[in-house]
């Protein structure tokens, strides 16, 4: 009587056992079950080389190590973000300078800022444009290289409450002059899209912390 050496029901691995753990890692138990299933169902005349099993286990270990490292890096990143937010929260009530060219004026309010001239500029002017395109010009005269401070007084200029865009030009084709706007830090929040801190400056509006350039002394107003 012939005896079939393979007359044995193949080992079936439960599909639930093959699912990743809740942490997204392949478990050692899953690997062992797959290994046993592979041995039980291999061709006896052409068995799988044991080196292949060792290689598979090594690859699994590397994947688990990488997943663990990724989780640890994410934890560190979250911790750094929290520390950064706590540090920035100490700036509430202090003056700050940020790169920008837009301001938000309230009734009878003022906005301060400064221009950075790489070299001397003749007939320097600051242009203030509202949402309708109406423009108000503040002459700043001839200025040497360096910082040029300016103040926008809504009352004196007859500007209504609203948002305005700013630009500065000088004779000789000097345009796109770097500008920083000053305001008191009113609040700090985390932007849900970029996951980065955003500071709200009085008279300026929301400013990403990456655009901040200087912090001044605490306001006494």
TrEMBL record:
Residues 1-22 are annotated as: Disordered. Keywords: Bacterial flagellum biogenesis, Cell projection, Cilium, Flagellum. This is Basal-body rod modification protein FlgD. Gene3D superfamilies: 2.30.30.910, 2.60.40.4070. It comes from Izhakiella capsodis. The keyword Protease does not apply. It comes from the Bacteria. Required for flagellar hook formation. May act as a scaffolding protein. GO terms for biological process: bacterial-type flagellum organization. Belongs to the FlgD family. The keyword Translocase does not apply. Residues 103-171 form the FlgD/Vpr Ig-like domain.
